[in-house]
Design a protein that fits this description.
Length: 269
């Protein structure tokens, strides 16, 4: 059997704090000659699926978490499916689509959880030849301003570091070291990573909620460690508000890194 997810569906994933930039999706769609059918793998609650469905006639969105899919949006041209953590290539028509019918496979902030050789076998079987495209991206730690960034860096690199899963290193590396055995798409010298930026306005409470959504935060809490202690929150408060009060909004910038490639003419095993 092909285990295309490395971890079971209960594995916590970092929830995106905002929509991914539309420039990301327009770049991806510009690399597929046809826009008939896309597969959004590891779709979760469909944060990226909506944008993909705006550019492709039909989308199959899959996830191993039935709970996540319950929160997916209702889209006229998208079907959300709960899939098992493992299935063979022969079951592609049941769970996704017949072989060689997909124009695009996308994976948003999830590829580092996958058993890559087995998932890539599914991708190579499912994509059209020779121009079917796979696009996978992650977003890394945000940038706020000169006051908040040093506090955040200490929180991320010192306080939360022991509680991240090993796969997080692939995200920190912007997916640059992630195995990605595909050909460069037209107009690109390589498969990336290519950088985009997602921006969202947040107040301090919203930013702290984002930090609490981290899998590292949840892991630490399960071990009896409160990463956002009163002292840490006070440091964030001083940096965020600069001695003032209120609910000051800040523009938080999240770098997004894309790996993109096509299957080419050669049959892959």
């Amino acid at each position: 059997m092909n285990n295309y997810f490395l971890q079971p569906s209960s594995t916590p994933k970092l929830a995106p704090p905002t929509r991914y930039p539309q420039s990301l999706f327009h770049f991806i769609s510009s690399k597929t000659p046809s826009h008939q059918l896309a597969w959004d793998a590891g779709a979760g609650s469909g944060q990226a699926t909506k944008s993909i469905a705006a550019l492709y006639a039909n989308v199959i969105a899959t996830d191993t978490s039935a709970k996540q899919i319950q929160f997916a949006p209702s889209l006229p041209n998208a079907v959300f499916r709960h899939t098992p953590p493992s299935f063979p290539v022969s079951d592609l028509p049941t769970h996704v689509a017949p072989p060689s019918t997909l124009d695009l496979v996308t994976v948003a902030q999830a590829l580092h959880w996958f058993d890559l050789p087995n998932f890539y076998a599914l991708v190579n079987a499912a994509l059209k030849k020779p121009h079917g495209v796979i696009a996978a991206w992650c977003y890394t730690t945000p940038h706020i301003d000169a006051r908040v960034d040093p506090v955040f860096e200490e929180f991320y690199k010192v306080h939360s570091a022991p509680y991240w899963d090993p796969q997080r290193k692939l995200v920190d590396d912007r997916y640059a070291s992630l195995t990605f055995p595909f050909e460069a798409v037209d107009g690109c010298d390589g498969t990336g990573p290519f950088e985009f930026t997602a921006e969202v306005e947040m107040d301090l409470d919203g930013f702290l909620r984002y930090l609490r959504s981290w899998s590292a935060y949840q892991t630490a809490k399960e071990m009896g460690v409160e990463l956002l202690s009163e002292g840490v929150v006070e440091e964030f408060k001083k940096a965020w508000l600069g001695g003032g009060g209120g609910d000051e909004q800040k523009v938080v910038k999240f770098p997004v890194y894309l790996r993109i490639g096509k299957v080419g003419n050669e049959k892959r095993e």
